[in-house]
Write a structure and sequence with these properties.
The longest helix is centred in the C-terminal third of the chain and has 55 residues, at 513-567. By secondary structure, the protein is of the alpha/beta class. Among the domains are: 32-73; 344-567, no CATH class. The protein has helices at 36-43, 48-54, 59-71, 76-84, 95-112, 128-137, 157-162, 187-196, 215-223, 240-247, 295-302, 324-337, 365-368, 392-400, 428-433, 476-487, 513-567; strands at residues 72-73, 117-121, 149-153, 173-177, 202-206, 230-234, 254-258, 288-292, 313-318, 343-348, 379-383, 407-410, 439-442, 445-446, 465-467, 472-473, 493-495.
């Protein structure tokens, strides 16, 4: 039994309080703890509360710990409340309040130089008064002089204008909301960004409305940021005019868009026509490109004399109906033009009013055959409403000719869920021929796989995720889970979900309720497999260890008998 003030567990050694007494003998710390770089490595593994304690030990520890505590401020209220300790919203200050502000500013400077990253998301509480106080009483123009990353997400004009308080020439990365839709002068924000942060390297713009409402302002902003290397926009923001402007920028190497409401929502009409004007020397540094366009427009773009042929990653979304031949032509063009391409994703996410299988419109292995001609391609993904028409023999050819494959998602989530030609045996060729494969997605009829009794199943060596999308699992507990347990390593995660609802095209936002219900029914069956699989894999692993131990023991016994027989 322990008393009410006694701890049941002893405190960790580094958290035990130091008790000072008359008999206390000072023991000098190890010399290694006086090396700032070593302290920084140790303190960086601790949380904020621990480093607050470290900051109270001595001056050297304090400097190292405070640098880590204030290196990244996750939101502005925490910074202001910690430094000032109170908020006051009276319109006028008394003499004591003005003195308090001066003391606060002097204290603020002690920490301001340590802040490298500031993230602020506008919330319900209003900090305008404190920000105004800061603007009036700051001793230097740059409030956070060593700031290199600013993330400022807002909803109203007042908060938008307050972002300028932290803008200066030293900022290199900016994550910011677009000006509110109702704001009359939307260009004012972009003018401030270009004037105050002209040396930006990364721009992440989050806007909840169509690009044509601010396209001219974005073009002017890009012209004012000559050192820009990376842009992240909402989907449908890479219009012909914006891509043309980006093609003339010397250092741009990453043009990316993000799906989902957090990044924003554009209008697919803005990219119905994709005909950027490229000049000689276009995209000298571009390596990663995301785009939403028709396949024929992408093919024409990549056949341009000044196309970005040094791409290593290409992501294509298209929301219009396409023939399989158009996809084949695009893949053939890319294999001829982009010899450095290692990551290719093509998502044909058009959803017609009536989902009915049309065999002539299915993607086949011949449609995809050009991917085998790429010199460095290790990641490939294709998405389509119809299942890929591919046989087990063609899967074996694909795997055997692609030993460098690391990630393959072969349309594992079609919306027309007719019985596929593939079953669980389609996984076996990848275990035999693709030792580096880490991510795999296939649409299969998951039944009891009829494997030849003499065939030994070799497990995946590097697989980390297996995606089954909208596949149907027959007898999940008695057939599917035991078979997968023979192939999947312990680190592999089984996934049964869809990504169609993430896309922002109108047709994807209006998927039929019956279709969604059918998909949910399929994913529920896979939940049983997901629950069983880790235990079955562990059981197989333990069994294999016991078998190895038994074989080793038998071998040792045989060697012992051979030795004794030789002596006799």
């Amino acid at each position: 039994m322990t008393g009410p003030h006694e701890r049941k567990n002893p405190p960790l050694p580094w958290k035990r309080p130091i008790v000072m007494s008359e008999s206390f003998v000072h023991v000098p710390s190890h010399r290694v703890l006086s090396i700032s770089d070593v302290l920084n490595m140790i303190f960086s593994l601790m949380d904020r509360d621990d480093n607050v304690i470290n900051a109270c030990i001595c001056k050297q520890w304090s400097d190292v710990a405070l640098d880590l505590i204030w290196r990244e401020v996750v939101n502005l209220p925490r910074l202001l409340n910690t430094l000032k300790g109170h908020t006051n919203h009276h319109p006028k200050h008394s003499g004591s309040e003005r003195a308090s502000l001066l003391v606060w500013c002097a204290r603020f400077q002690k920490y301001a130089n340590r802040v490298r990253t500031l993230r602020h998301h506008e919330g319900a509480k209003d900090y305008s008064k404190m920000l105004d106080d800061m603007a009036m009483t700051r001793p230097t123009l740059e409030v956070l002089p060593n700031l290199h990353t600013l993330e400022w997400l807002f909803q109203d004009v007042k908060c938008m204008e307050q972002a300028t308080l932290f803008m200066h020439h030293g900022v290199r990365k900016l994550v910011i909301s677009g000006p509110p839709l109702f704001h009359k002068s939307k260009s004012s924000l972009f003018i401030d960004i270009a004037a105050r942060m002209p040396y930006l390297h990364s721009l992440d713009l989050r806007v909840p409305y169509a690009v044509h409402l601010i396209e001219a302002d974005i073009l002017e902003l890009l012209r004012g940021l000559p050192d820009l290397k990376k842009v992240i926009f909402p989907e449908f923001y890479f219009t012909s005019a914006i891509v043309s402007e980006l093609s003339r920028m010397k250092y741009i190497n990453n043009m990316q868009f993000e799906l989902g409401p957090n990044q924003g929502l554009g209008d697919e009409k803005d990219v119905n026509s994709f005909v950027p004007v490229l000049e000689q020397g276009a995209f000298p540094m571009l390596r990663n490109l995301d785009m939403t366009a028709r396949l024929e427009d992408v093919t024409r773009f990549m056949n341009n004399d000044f196309a970005p042929i040094k791409l290593t990653s290409l992501f294509i979304d298209t929301y219009v109906e396409h023939e399989p031949e158009q996809l084949h032509t695009l893949l053939a063009t890319l294999s001829d033009q982009c010899h450095l391409l290692s990551n290719l994703c093509t998502k044909l996410v058009h959803v017609p009013a009536q989902l009915k299988l049309i065999p002539a419109d299915q993607i086949t292995f011949d449609t995809l055959r050009p991917v085998l001609s790429f010199q460095k391609l290790t990641t490939f993904e294709v998405l389509h409403k119809y299942p890929v028409n591919i046989t087990l023999e063609e899967i074996e050819e694909l795997a055997s000719r692609w030993p460098s494959l690391r990630s393959l998602y072969l349309n594992e989530e079609p919306l027309v869920m007719t019985t596929p030609k593939l079953d669980l045996r389609a996984l076996i060729p990848f275990t035999l021929y693709c030792p580096k494969l880490r991510h795999l997605g296939l649409f299969m009829d998951a039944t009891a796989a009829k494997v030849h009794p003499m065939q030994e199943l070799k497990p995946f060596t590097a697989l980390r995720s297996l995606s089954v999308g909208t596949s149907w699992a027959h007898n999940p507990d008695s057939d599917v889970a035991p078979f997968l347990a023979q192939l999947c390593p312990k680190e592999c995660e089984l996934k049964a979900n869809i990504t169609w609802t993430l896309f922002r095209g109108r047709s994807c936002r209006k998927l039929d309720d019956r279709l969604l219900s059918d998909i949910k029914c399929r994913t529920t069956r896979w939940d049983t497999v997901i629950d069983l699989l880790p235990n079955l894999i562990q059981f197989r692993s333990d069994l294999m260890e016991k078998m190895k131990a038994a074989v080793t023991a038998l071998q040792e016994e045989v060697e012992n008998l051979k030795t004794r027989n030789h002596l006799l």
